[in-house]
């Protein structure tokens, strides 16, 4: 608690906005990390084990995927649930489902990008306000200005800029890396769903290698 109070005192008037940005960044990154683990490659090993050249046993595949939470497994279960529909209708349903997943995967990342933009500005604003306060105190002081006073004042003022940059780096970096990962996951899922849709229509793969996402 004492460390938190000391940090808030050093950050001045921008302490709570910067702490809010930091908290939100950590929450989003931790949530995305959990999502990344859920969609880890070893959790989708069933795709590589499937014999695409044989007729599809949709019920057996649905039983195998029941309870799995990965994007690929949920998409496959969704498509198998509409196995009785026409191929074109399944494509429309899968397209809408993928669009919804894309919005969900990218929603938190846009917030990270906003935090990455505004947190350095907030830090710079805190630094400017701190410098203004320091010069006001120096102007009101009747005694001589010592280098130690300037060093202390400048050090405290610069803390907010450093805090803003420290928050912005993981926010911007995480947003870009997670966007690349999300797009890759969506592309892989779209590929597998297209193949399963063809499989449901009775079109088998020519070879296992062609069907690997």
Shape field:
rod-shaped
How many separate domains?
A: 1
Task: Output the helix-strand order.
Answer: HHHHHHHH
Helix content: over 70%
**How large is the count of helical segments?**
8
Average pLDDT number: 84
Question: Quick one: biggest sheet?
Answer: none
- In terms of structural class, how would the helical and strand content be classed? mainly alpha
Report how far apart the termini are: 50 Å
| Cα radius of gyration in angstroms | 27 Å
Strand content: under 5%
Q: What are the low-pLDDT stretches, counting only 5+ consecutive residues below 50?
A: 206-213
The strand count comes to 0
Report on the structure:
The protein has one domain (17-29, 57-211). It has 213 residues and is an all-alpha fold. Residues 206-213 have low confidence and may be disordered. The radius of gyration is 27 Å and the shape is rod-shaped. The chain is built from eight helices and no strands. 79% of the residues lie in helices and 0% in strands. It has helices spanning 2-11, 15-38, 45-49, 58-65, 71-80, 87-140, 147-200, 208-211. Helix 2 (15-38) runs parallel beside helix 7 (147-200) and helix 5 packs parallel to helix 7.
């Amino acid at each position: 608690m004492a460390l938190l109070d000391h940090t808030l005192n050093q950050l001045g008037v921008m302490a709570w906005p910067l702490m809010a940005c930091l908290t939100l960044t950590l929450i989003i990154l931790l949530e995305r990390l959990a999502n990344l683990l859920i969609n880890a490659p070893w959790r989708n090993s069933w795709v590589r084990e499937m014999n695409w050249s044989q007729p599809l046993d949709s019920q057996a595949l649905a039983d195998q995927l029941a309870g799995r939470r990965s994007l690929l497994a949920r998409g496959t279960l969704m498509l198998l649930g509409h196995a009785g529909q026409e191929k074109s209708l399944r494509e429309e349903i899968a397209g809408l489902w993928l669009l919804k997943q894309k919005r969900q995967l990218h929603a938190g990342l846009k917030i990270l990008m906003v935090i990455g933009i505004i947190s350095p500005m907030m830090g710079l604003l805190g630094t400017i306000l701190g410098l203004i306060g320091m010069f006001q105190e120096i102007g009101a002081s009747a005694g001589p200005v010592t280098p130690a006073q300037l060093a202390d004042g400048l050090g405290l003022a610069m803390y907010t800029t450093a805090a803003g940059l420290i928050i912005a780096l993981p926010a911007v970096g995480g947003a870009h890396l997670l966007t690349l990962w999300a797009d890759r996951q969506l592309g892989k899922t779209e590929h597998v769903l297209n193949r399963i849709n063809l499989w449901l229509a009775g079109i088998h793969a020519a070879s296992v290698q062609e069907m690997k996402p």
